[in-house]
């Protein structure tokens, strides 16, 4: 249902090659999530640089608008996790990337399917449409909080203990305003 521009991969390979980067990020059109990374080259040489990338409004988190250099991927997606597995993937691999390049060109088009039946809904829609939404605490915030220890385990491979919370708590609050509304 999503679709890409025909030149997406050519553009991203060109960016990775030109900048000798490990990750290329393109812009996308998603109805709720915006990428503010834009036309950027970011050298990932410090905790602050990694935080800048990680905090760039989902620039790091989402896998579908990225191209990774194969050598930068050491850990696969955790297929036992059906929620925020993309975040765990990024946290597990981020220190393998030394440079990221972005383009403001919209090359990825995200399709949000209309809600027709529970079986076909995305995990986010299933959470929002659940009749016991607040009683079960199956909201984004609570589900992210349940993954906190796993996130911290990924981060502990690369960062000092005093730096881990800077990353671990960054994503946990992203959807809180949406859930309140």
Task: Give an overview of the whole structure.
- Helices cover 36% and strands 15% of the residues.
- With 181 residues, it is an alpha+beta fold.
- Strands 1, 2, 3, 4 and 5 form a five-stranded mixed sheet that branches.
- It is globular and about 50 Å long.
List keywords for this structure.
single chain; alpha+beta; 5-stranded mixed sheet; 8 helices
Give the SSE map.
Layout: E1 3-4, H1 8-19, E2 23-29, E3 40-43, H2 47-54, E4 66-68, H3 85-93, E5 99-109, H4 123-129, H5 140-146, H6 148-156, H7 161-168, H8 176-180
Helix pairs in contact: 3-6, 6-7
- Main sheet, how many strands, which sense, barrel? 5 strands, mixed
Q: Report low-confidence residues grouped into runs of 5 or more.
A: none
What is the terminal separation in angstroms?
A: 27 Å
Number of alpha- plus pi-helical segments: 8
Q: Indicate the proportion of strand residues.
A: 5-15%
> Level of helix content?
25-40%
In total, the number of strands is 5
Rg from alpha-carbon coordinates: 17 Å
Structural class: alpha+beta
Mean pLDDT, to the nearest integer, reads 79
Order of helices and strands: EHEEHEHEHHHHH
Shape: globular
